[in-house]
Amino acid sequence: MPTYEYPVALGLAYILLVGCLIRAFFVFVGLPASVGVMLSGFIFQHFFQSDLFFARDELQGLSFFLVLLIAGLEIRSKDLQAHIFVMALLPASCELIGIAVYACKVLEYTPVEGMVLGSVLVAMGDGLVIPKMKEFSQTFPDHPLPRLVFAWAPLEASFALTAFGVLTGLASPAHQAPTPLGTILLANFLRLVATLALGILLGCVSCWFIASRQKMRILKLLFQDPATEGGKTEGFLVLISVTLIALSLGKGESGSELVPMGFCP
Asked: Mind listing the UniProt keywords for this protein, alphabetically (predicted)?
């Protein structure tokens, strides 16, 4: 019987969603909203506190993920022009290939191992650059550089993370028999398609829910007007929660994922 490690991202999503719902209920019945938030935290400490304490390293990774999410929210379809893709892909590709060549020639790695090393070491300074661009945009609100970086940084990070996932699948561990190349390529293709399809579905459902809070009577009673600051905060918390749920779906050791994809080795 395989053991399943509870994903921290999923637990955080539960805390945010339940806290948002309890807060909305307390506001609806005329009670202080802060009491509802504290009550949800008190309830979850009996189920999740120890897991959260031992997952401090994973929380650092989640902070990087949330930085990318916030930067991605700044992107519009019209921002994804050809020069943005060149800036996001060309420097990272050159760096990745350069590291791989060095690993093969000097460290005597195989080409696949060298590419995996390159995808690990390729520079992604999004966690530092994006906050700096936030400060820059406040000082110079009309300058085009922050919006350029907000569009470029998530694309570069997505490229590096996707390359790492694909290349890791090509490198068979020493204790396992090599997997046929065609099977690996098909598996990675199916993973990419399934990830994109699920992401689009969750994004559409989340946008519909956030936009419909004032159109459905029950949601209108529970949630604030989306045009207000409180309503915008609620929508943002819902979006983060759904994103954390999506992130946690594939968490777990190989063969013991929360949502296993049996057709992909």
From this structure: Membrane, Transmembrane, Transmembrane helix
Residue 72 lies in a domain: no
Model confidence, pTM: 0.63
Please say whether the beta carbons of 176 and 205 come within 8 A: no
Q: Please indicate, yes or no, whether residues 155 and 82 belong to a single structural domain of this protein.
A: yes
Total structural domains within the chain: 2
Domain that includes residue 187, residue range: 1-54+180-256
- pLDDT tens for each residue of 172-185: 655 556 666 677 77
- For residues 141 and 97, membership in a common domain is answered with yes
pLDDT of residue 142: 84
